[in-house]
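Researcher: Next sequence.
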Amino acid sequence: MSESFRERARAWLDANAAGRSDDGPTAHWDLPSARAFQARLHDAGLAGISWPAAYGGQGLTTADERAFAEEARDFDLPTGYFTIGLGMCGPTLLDLGSEELKLRYIRPLLRGEEVWCQLFSEPGAGSDVASLQTRATRDGDGWVVSGQKVWTSVAQNADLGAVIARTNPDVPKHDGITMFVIDMHQPGVSVRPLRDMTGGATFNEVFFDGARIPADHVVGEVDQGWAAAVRMLMHERVAIGGSTRGRGSAAGFESLVEEVRARGLDRDPVVRERLAELYVHERLLHLFGSRLAQEARAGRNPGARGSVGKLAGAELARFGTDVAAELLGGDAIAWDASDREARRWAGALLSAPAAAIAGGTNEVQRNIIGDRVLGLPREPQVDRDVPFRDLRVGTRTEERP
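Model: Next structure:
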């Protein structure tokens, strides 16, 4: 990694991005503003840093990309709209997409011209994603999709989605699934926000009613979508587990240190011990995530170890909010409506449990780690070799032939 790149990145961020304050992000990004910023970031050579130049990336090293991430921690960037595309869909397209798909979609993704979502979970297929019931059937020179997805982040803003659907019900459930790129703005696609206990609506349910997909928009191979889904989940878990916590994150070490100092508790030995624990947790996750991200960008598949990072990230989120609640007491759960600071802490506490669900539950991650990392015996699966149409799964209750 050249120090000149780090210095160039820092200089550009200083000149073009707002810094984080101690009470969190300083700017509210609407989608048009976020798109414009992402385009400027790309034009400055700071988006897709280690992605291939042939598709719109910068063709630099993973060390350069990590250096930018470290410098960006001090700034409020509009990453939320593009996290799914940059961390999950784009890397999977680079791995498995056709040349045509990569040439068509990677550059606009990096420039923020198109927002992506990931369409996996269903009402009857959450942790057991392979039980999905959304169908894609051939129709002339293309496919027609019908079904429902749920818990889909940023779907309300998405232009495109990576969707997995059942294309062959006559084989076992892990077979006969295909991944597609789908246009989210076409007739036959409906998006409905789901409000959670924080008061926000970051998740959505998505309905497909005869939505169409061109034949050449398959990611990987027809009926081999489970392998594509596993690859995307690996990228997702590396992205979640390897993310660098911003200095303004509510329950992060640095934010809590500032809060403790403001309350005059920084000399309390018990408080200092809890903060030291939080720092160690954060640092370990950061180092582990850095290693996974570097391996992935260098073309080495971290495999099931991505679940270690994802699980550690979820447990860190809960641990950080637990420490915050201990230190803040009643201020963490009750606040005046006009008190922005207290509202921020309460929001962090309410949203922390979601980290143990989104991207695969903690229980699922432990099963994956036990099976594929530690080599422990697998749990029995009686439906592994049964054709999907013969299974009674999820919300499906109709009679089988």
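Model: The longest strand covers residues 203-214. The chain has eleven helices and ten strands.
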